[in-house]
Amino acid sequence: ARVGADHDFWPSCLGKFGVGEMNENGQRLLELCSYHDLSITNSFFQTKPQHKVSWRHPRSMHWHQLDLIIIRRSALKCVLLTRTFHSADCDSDHSLVCSKMRLQPKKIHRSRQEGKPRIDVSKTAHPDKAEKFTQELSEVLNCMPPGGCAKERWGHIRDAVHSTAMKVFGNKRNMNNDWFEANSAILTPAIEERRAVHLEYKRSPSQRTLQEYRFARSKVQRLARQCANDYWLQLCRSIQLSADTGNIRE
């Protein structure tokens, strides 16, 4: 949809910095925006011409503004900037369009207190850390005030064990396994190469740069499929080994 630059006819939908001419799909979109009180943020900011367009016609080589960010008219004041980033590697013939916004999130009121942080019990297998924990816990318990009822003494012991364990073993972090992160050393160079070739194709489009970009893109896709397949096969083997050995912690 090409919405054009007719701010006078669509004052609530378009700003003063639109691009090109409106087509039929653009008219339908503007009618929809006018009915629902929406605004197209791309046309409200005076940026460079290359930062307003996001797609180049393959035959005419003319740039057009096809990728739009739409927001409610009442929230338009929250948008600080909308522009195109041609250097972003999106693996598409369309360039990335982003909006910079200033938001005021609502405060979240929690109905219950959060629990204590969890201890990284995997480090208890290290002999040096286990010995250090025993020594520090003994020192803390020796400094525990005498007397008091059983409930108070239990509270002191519980807090001493938890605080000492947190100090020695640290906090447990939730690790989300991801096949891309596990193979980042292999994939990152290929992705950077594809990005450089893509930028070269955008700067000087030709049959040579197009073929180089297609080759780099197919290389990244091939490596990604191979790395993902190897990762999931290794994960399946690890799960099967843990099941065979009765290791429920892995």
UniProtKB/TrEMBL annotation:
InterPro entries: Endo/exonu/phosph_ase_sf, Swc5/CFDP1/2. This is Craniofacial development protein 2. It comes from Chelydra serpentina (Snapping turtle).
